[in-house]
């Protein structure tokens, strides 16, 4: 039985532009089970947002070219050009989104209440055929459903710890703080009762003190309501705090996926080892990783980390198939770190020191 909620398999895509074709995602595989909280980590520019946007179906169509692979959500083919009604039922209803920047995500000219009502008019869990596009003029918002939705809205705002929810709904976006706006975003992502929430660096724009609170709240509410969360972040500390599992991306490739304990205690891909070692509290101390991320216009063949990898050999010019060093642990590397060998771990961490 296939118990995946989300199944991204071998996804390769890129964008054409004046500078040529940018090969962004290269054979990415990502699976999520119902209720799982998975971190999608990697350096800035490694393709986390592109992957999240591909799942949500919001990549710019004019330049996008899908070169291979599939995205299936609970049985719906999210890349098919004919299953658009099913895709519309999934997007914004079964899969919702928490954006990076709560400051630009609201429309400044409507009150928060008007914007939440509009969301529920279309995406309420009670709405039949939720998500199927119809002409807005011919779609009523029946009074009885609107009343029940209002109850849902007030209780969800209370659950994200927004005081005086009725007052907040009357305000305009600029009248509430950044932290409150991000709580509202979490509430709006929860209201359709989704099976998956994609949170794209949801706390980057906030104060460090508020970040941990918001992530803790997201984890608690998603778990209580049985929703899975895909959290894109470059903050490994956040991933450690709230995730069950982690997928590591490097230059548009998934290089490793592991339960959170294995990720931190027994990383197998040399890039993961470097990433962990370059944390301020890691063995390398804020050293960074020598070398540069390759260009997406002319990426190296095979493993894209090979040009920076102390273990690379000629084999690495072909993309490695996945291997499985442990339960739920996948790595794509011809020369993985042996978790049992302290000398190997030290070699990876200290190779350039
Ligand atoms: N429409 C596009 N055309 C060309 N290149 C693009 C396009 N969209 C994204 N890219 C490139 O794809 C790469 C991956 O970007 P993406 O935003 O997915 O990375 P990221 O890991 O989410 O980064 P960050 O952590 O900074 O948000 C970047 O080099 C970006 O410039």
UniProtKB/TrEMBL annotation:
Keyword Cell cycle: no
Name used for this protein in its record: Peptide/nickel transport system ATP-binding protein
Pfam families in the cross-refs: ABC_tran (PF00005), oligo_HPY (PF08352)
GO cellular component, one term: plasma membrane
Stretches that traverse the bilayer: none
Keyword annotations from UniProtKB, A to Z: ATP-binding, Cell membrane, Membrane, Nucleotide-binding, Transport
Compartment(s) of residence: Cell inner membrane
GO BP terms in the entry: peptide transport; transmembrane transport
Main location: membrane
Domain ABC transporter: 8-276
Membrane topology: Peripheral membrane protein
PROSITE patterns, per database record: ABC_TRANSPORTER_1, ABC_TRANSPORTER_2
Organism of origin: Palleronia aestuarii
Protein family (similarity comment): Belongs to the ABC transporter superfamily.
Entry GO MF terms: ATP binding; ATP hydrolysis activity
